[in-house]
Amino acid sequence: IYNLNPFHADTERKQVNVKTKLTGNFDALGRTHQVILGGSYNKSDLDTFTYTAPPDGLLPISDFDNWDGSYAEPAWGAKTQSSDVTVKEKAIFAATQLKLTDPLSVILGSRVSDYERSGVQYGNNVDTESKHIWTPYAGITYDINENHSLYTSYSEIFKPQTERDIDGNYLDPIEGKNYEIGLKSESDNGAL
Hints:
This protein is mostly beta strands. The protein has strands at about 10-30, 30-50, 80-100, 105-120, 125, 130-145, 150-160, 175-185. Strands 1, 2, 3, 4, 5, 6, 7 and 8 form an 8-stranded antiparallel sheet that branches.
């Protein structure tokens, strides 16, 4: 047993994405260190227009075993706007790599972000907002030699989701902590 669910929609998406980053070096404690500063802005507008299903349903396929794949365009009904959603993300970030000794470096970073989703989608209000979310990062690297490095890092996670629950509400952003420790290696010619 199967059910056919005819659906036809037009979507329009407009996006603006801007990212800027400045990198540089500075000298302190007799060594040269690196710094990165930046920011980003992303805006996405999504409009969806759906058509009423054909009043008489879809035409049946007479002989499915010999069907050539052609099918007449259904007589769709009225077109209505079913979603009008705007998503905005803004962030500023900074990081530095401090060279404490020739083989030992400390990396510190931070990001502050704002996230906003507003509008209506299939009759549901989708207004959500997260302001001034701080996500830090810290890491240590130690160069054993030219080909091998040990590293450890800690970072916090904030990631908005596009998935929805059974009621059509967006899931809360993913938040968490990430810990890593490991060994990075490469061959002499950098091919591996």
